[in-house]
User: What shape does this take?
Amino acid sequence: MADQPEIFTFVFDGQSVEARSGDTVASALYRAGRRIFTRSFKYHRPRGLLCLAGKCPNCMMNVDGAPNVRACITPARAGIQIRHQNAYPSLENDWLSGVQRLDWLMPVGWYYKTMTRDWSWHAAEPYIRKVAGLGIVPEPGRGSKDYEHAWMHAEAAVIGGGPAGLGAALELAVSGTQVVLVDDQPELGGHLRYRKQAGALPDGLIAQLRSICGVQLLSGAYCFGLYEGNLLGVLQTNPHPGAIERLIHLRAKKVVVATGAYEVPFTFENNDLPGVMLSTAVQRLIHLHGIKPGKSAVIIGNAGQADEVAGDLRGAGVEVAKILELHEVVSAIGSSHVTAVRSTGGKFSCDLVVMCGQRVPDAGLLHQAGGKLAWNEQRGAFLPVDLPPTVSAAGEVTGANLARAVDLTAQNVAFNKRSFVCLCSDVSTSDLRDGISEGFDHIETLKRYTTLTMGPCQGRMCQLAGIGVCASETGRSIAETGVTTSRPPNPSVSLGALAGPRHHPIRRTPMHYAHEDSGAVWLDMGEWKRPRYYRSASCTSERACVEEEYRAVREHAGLIDVSTLGKLDLKGQDAGKLLDKVYTNRFSNLKPWRVRYSVLCDEAGIILDDGTISRLAEDHYFITTTTGNLDFVQQWLEWWLVGTGWDVHITNVTGGRAAVNLAGPHARNVLAKVTECDLTAKAFPYMACREAQVAGVPSLLLRIGFVGETGWEIHFPGDYGEYLWSQLLEAGKTFGIRVFGVEAQRLLRLEKRHVIVGVDTDALTSPFESGMAWVAKLDKADFIGRNALSRLSSAAAPQSLVGFVMDGHALPQDGAAILVNGGLTGRVTSARYSPYKERAVGLAWVAAAHAREGAEIDIRVDGGTARARIVPDAFYDPAGERLRM
Assistant: This one.
């Protein structure tokens, strides 16, 4: 007696649904009577099951908070929570379904044609995004975190667990080759699992494969990309109870692609109605899930495949009302579900329409590997040719056993707004014809204009039909029309799987817990935790707290933890030579106990990092780098040191050193209470450094001023972090000292127009564009980037980094667009409200033609524009007098 299936329940839209072991979410819902599974992207038309193979968009739902999950390939599990998508308030009664009656207002490319003004697009965009869309992205922190990455190597990888893939894997394994077999189905066997008339399952072959120790089977895993060097991207779902997805980086010496062929739908009026299904989907319902797919069916297709499906339907107790060939079909009839088919020979009532569609080789991986796809008229498909030597194909993906189901070039295409080619984006045959008539008559440009093949199915369901329409309308052959380019990932991959597990290290400064005691609100800066600002009893908002911290620095004294700065110690008689070679400034002539600012450029003259370099002795330098670029700068120095024979030793001392910046008009008074070092301007001038005891702690003091006030950057052993921090705060009580965080620091530096590399610069920024030409010493004999910078020095820069002051009280966001006379001319890099200017100030990249002193620019703010003026100098203390006090 056969084992009884396990019965359990899950929840769909708040209702309990019964499922059986072996069910997918879609099969359980279908058995329970559900026929509408989603609403279409553009017109909100009802959509039902179509392929049952994860190839189409018709069953995408929200599963346990994850959007756009294909219910037809998602195993049903007890207790999972399923919600519908893209319909309000319900799938049966979607208020937005009336949009389809306005399709005449939305011809192909209508938004390109109608929203030609910036204001019109910005006004319509939020509504378009709400009405047309797929799933809703989870809020930050609400998505699943159970993702894994794994790395595997194999002598051979076989993609596909059907008859051809099993045979190829066994042949390789018997010859002693280590094999990894990847299959996207829960069980091996491919189409033999549900096409019973195609042959029996090769149980003996499967058992033999499982018994060979050199074979590893990955079931329920799909390959989404074949990259350079035979690197395969494989996604395995639910590899174990502790992970929802595992992304496997599989590298193989040889790859055998045996992905088979998949079925695609026909085009006729209302071909998207629920109840219109592919024959392979019907066979899956019958043979894999034991479900009777309907009561009365009309089959569309050629003899052979139609007869096979008719036998399966009759065996399941479904009446076959009629078998039609495609050219006889006029339309499907129905509103929320198919009720009949109208043909040239009459009307046939039914609740199921079965399309015996063209079977298309699943050759995307072969195309990605560098192979070509050539049209084969006899097979009615594009077949792979000219494959790389380490990649081969087997089975139906090569065209074996395939036959043409429809003549794509026949002049009988039903051009209708309800005859859908692309179900993902509601692109109809009529839309494609209109796009071609407007000049988009190449398959690639037609794709971009109409969004054909650009939806979740990535062309699986629509590419062949779209090529047929393009060929028919342009008079070209199918071969001349060609295919669109296959690019990974295909099928799609969740961002969580790409990101992998959160094994992100957290670094804390030696004063971390002192910050917590002071009410720090934390900011993640790379691996580091830094105080964004500090809460206090006297302020109720972030802006108020930041302004209090700002005023403490400008009027009294402020203390900030800068331990996250990179710190490198250079020793050796040739240390100055290395710095001269790598940095744009000159350091071999820097006097001991002096500090100099410089930037690091690559061979193209692009800024990579900046920082200060202090000379502590003839053969001893101390470098600070930006927080995120420490490792890079160290590697860069070591790279350029290789092969020189120079005497230079580079030591990363970041982990062992704490650092603080004490700044403000009373900074000297505060520091004088805890050190005997002479801090007078004459004895300790700006851009000088000294070694001294601070509260009894051996320290290196740098007199520099990132925030624009008299100040000292103090570096000292990390073990003394909390002690020295507390001593400085105690010494500053009578002077109104206050701790300040990153947000206040960024406001203070912005008023001085000090640049932050990576914020105000990008991957193409040179010192000349960013207003730092003085830092590039072109009179040096040579340094990295000198040739490029020499050319740039005499060339007109296309854009400039400028300062601006808002005319009113608007505050633009970082990254806001800058307009002149309505045209885009730049972007904001940093903007903050300046208490000193009593309005917002900022830095921005502006086209050189508009980067003039006093020029007026418009900046995008809250959907509108606000006027600003370009200013040449720092917003605060442009002469730098306060730094040198």
Summary: The chain is about 20% helix and 30% strand. Residues 118-131 form the longest helix (14 residues). The chain has six domains: 7-93, 144-261+358-402, 265-357, 406-503, 504-794, 796-885.
